[in-house]
Amino acid sequence: MSVVPYSGMAGSALVAAKYPSRFSIVFASALRVLFATLLFTAGGMGSGLLLGILGTLAWGMMHGGHIDMTNAYRHVAIPIAIGLGTIAFFGAIYLEVRARRTSQER
Description:
The chain has 106 residues and is mainly alpha-helical. The protein has one domain (20-105). It is built from 2 helices and no strands. α1 (22-63) packs antiparallel against α2 (70-105). The longest helix has 42 residues, at 22-63. The radius of gyration is 26 Å and the shape is elongated. The model has no long low-confidence stretch (mean pLDDT 86).
C-alpha cells in the first residue's frame, strides 16, 4: 500500500467558483420582498388595531352608549395595514434592485 503525499490546496484551487443562477437570484429576491411585505403588513395590522381600539374606547367614553369594535378593524386597522404593506412592498423592491445593481457593477 503506497501513501500519496499531501499536496496542500493545489487540487482545490483548480475548482471553478460556482455562481448562483439567475433564477435563484430572482427567486431569493422575490421571497425577501414578499417576506418583508408580510412582516410590515402584519405589524401595521397589529398597531392599527391597537390604535383603533384605543380610539374607539376614547370615543365611547366621551359620547357614551354602545361601543362597536368592528369600526376599529374596518376604519383603522385594515387601511393602516394596506398602507404599510404597500410602502414595504415598493421599498423592498427598490432595495433589492439597488442591491442587484451595485453587486453587478463590481
